[in-house]
Every structure is written in C-alpha cells, then in structure tokens.
Design goal:
Helix 2 runs antiparallel to helix 3 (about 45-55) and helix 3 (about 45-55) packs across helix 8 (about 285-290). The protein is built from eight helices and 14 strands. The chain has helices spanning about 5-10, 20-30, 45-55, 55-65, 70-75, 125-140, 235-245, 285-290, and strands at about 85-90, 105, 115-120, 160-165, 175-185, 185-195, 200-205, 215-220, 220-225, 250-260, 260-270, 280, 295, 300.
Length: about 300
C-alpha cells in the first residue's frame, strides 16, 4: 500500500471526527502552520474556512466533471465545452469500437490529475488494463467523507467520462492550463501550468489578472521557467472565467486555449485542498487578502448577492 493509500485508509476511518478537527490536524501537518479557522488570513486558511462553514448546492453540482457541463450550458457557453463521447456508470457499458483512436478517460470526481487516462492510440492500448483502472475508480467509496473534507465530493457516485483528446505542441509547453482564481466573479490571480506530465504535475507560474508574472512560487510545484506569452484572446478567457465564477466566494476556473479556441477544463473550489505552501511564505497572506467574504447578521457566510 502506498503512503497516499495508507493516509486515505486512516482518514476514512476518522469520519466520526468533526470537519474542523480534521482540517486543523491536516493543515498543521502539511503546512506547518496553526490554522486560524474562524478568523482566516492566509489563502490556504480561507479554503479551510470554506470547507467547514460554507455550503452551496451549486458547488456540489459543479464539482462533478459531467454535471458541471450543464451549468456551463445554462450560461450560454456551450461553445467552450470539450466534445464528450459519453458518461458511464459501468465499464461494461462502454462501446470501445465507437471511440476515435485518441481520447481521454476521466473519473467524474477525480482530482489532482490522478484519475485521468490519455489514450493516444486506441489500437495499441491494453483494454484489460484500462478496464482494471476504470473499475478501481468506480469502486472508490462515496458514502465516506472526502479525506480532505472537501464536502462537494461527498455522496456522488463515481462515473467514467470520455472526452475528446486535446492536441498540444510540446515545443511551447504542451497543453497550457490557465487557472483563474476568482472572488465572486472577480479574477484575483492566475496560475499557468506548462510542461505537464500526467499525475506528476507540471511547471507553474503565478500571474496577476492582467498577466504580469508574480515573484512568488508554490513550494509543491516546479517553477515555470519558460516564457509564456499572453494569449491574444486572454481578455475573453478572463471574462468567461469571471462569469462562471460569479456565484462563488472562491472558485478556480480552468481554461485551455488551442489556436484561439477557448475550452473549459473544470471548476475547483479547494485548490490543493488548501494545503499548499508558498515561497515567500507571506504570499499566502497576500493571496488571502484578495478574497473578501460576506456574512449575514448571524455571522454565516453567504453569497454576495443574497439578502
């Protein structure tokens, strides 16, 4: 059993503990900081605060990689959706013969690039190994709390989503991933990830909303070395991300840009499960200061537009 699997095994047997206890313990272990849950300052702390104190059913819907497509369509943004070949509850239901030679398999509840398979040549792929992996994804328990207490994933059944393979050019960094961090639909910061190796991360750069490089790095990611030019349609990408993120106190909207065509990736509400560390450390506080939350008279977190 891997260290990750062992950690998940332990955490799933701690379902009886309150979320606040579990995130406090994990935060201390992973960031080496004391978590100020009720008066958060750091960005990483504010993500823990949202885990424990904020519940919006739309977030649960958007956390599912298939269901989120319906939300994107409701905004009139069908044009940014990647082509979907199907979503399946059982591996046996997949009609492999109907698929093109290149496609992508995803767990609808997968995260961190750990539940994604890129099939670049269907004729040479080992279908038996694919089936084993997919069945392992489907067997993931959903009657247990998420190990990071990311409640948006609780209670969902795992399904297999098959999408079009997005072509990329390795000479310019591969499939560049633009991640827009928004506060009630206002972009505050952008990550750009290049040279990604599936399941092993990529090189990450941090940019301001107007695409100026920030002098800060994530300690758990390789720093971005190559120069990334601002896409010609960057302002449109930002506007789309802000529109998608408008209902949420914090949301990360991932977009791709392939030859000028903007393609939706996913929405994430707890980037890195909120256990990231920055260099310099103070940038975590600067990042956190960018996010303003709204509370009602009982000091409960609420959507910005609610009364």
């Amino acid at each position: 059993m891997s260290i990750r699997d062992c950690r998940h095994w332990i955490l799933r047997r701690l379902d009886f503990l309150p979320d606040s206890w579990v995130v406090w313990i994990q935060y201390l272990i992973k960031t080496r900081h004391i978590l100020h849950l009720k008066n958060p300052r750091r960005f990483s702390e504010k993500l823990q605060h949202l885990k424990v104190y904020y519940r919006d059913p739309l977030m649960r819907r958007c956390a599912d990689k298939y269901e989120v497509r319906k939300y994107i369509s409701s905004l009139g943004l069908d044009s940014i959706l990647n082509e979907c070949y199907g979503v399946y509850d059982h591996v046996e239901s997949i009609n492999w013969d109907s698929l093109p030679s290149r496609y992508v398999l995803k767990d609808t509840l997968g995260g961190a690039g750990l539940s994604v398979l890129l099939v670049q040549d269907d004729s040479s792929s080992n279908k038996e190994e694919l089936r084993k992996t997919l069945n392992r994804w489907l067997k993931e328990p959903y009657d247990k709390k998420h190990t990071g207490r990311e409640w948006v994933y609780d209670g969902h059944p795992h399904r297999i989503l098959i999408e079009k393979y997005l072509e990329s050019d390795a000479s310019v960094g591969g499939l560049l991933d633009y991640k827009f961090f928004c506060n009630y639909g206002e972009c505050k910061l952008v990550y750009v990830i290049a040279d990604r190796s599936l399941g092993k991360g990529g090189s990450l750069g941090i940019f301001t909303p107007d695409f100026k490089r920030v002098k800060a790095e994530r300690k758990d990611e390789r720093p971005l070395v190559r120069e990334i030019e601002k896409p010609a349609s960057y302002n449109e990408m930002r506007a789309i991300a802000e529109r998608i993120a408008r209902p949420f106190p914090e949301a990360r909207v991932d977009l791709y840009n392939i030859d000028g065509r903007i393609i939706f990736g996913e929405i994430t509400f707890f980037d890195g499960s909120g256990y990231m560390r920055f260099n310099p450390d103070d940038f975590d506080k600067e990042f956190g200061d960018m996010f303003q939350f709204f509370y009602d008279e009982k000091w409960s977190l609420r959507p910005r537009d609610s009364k």
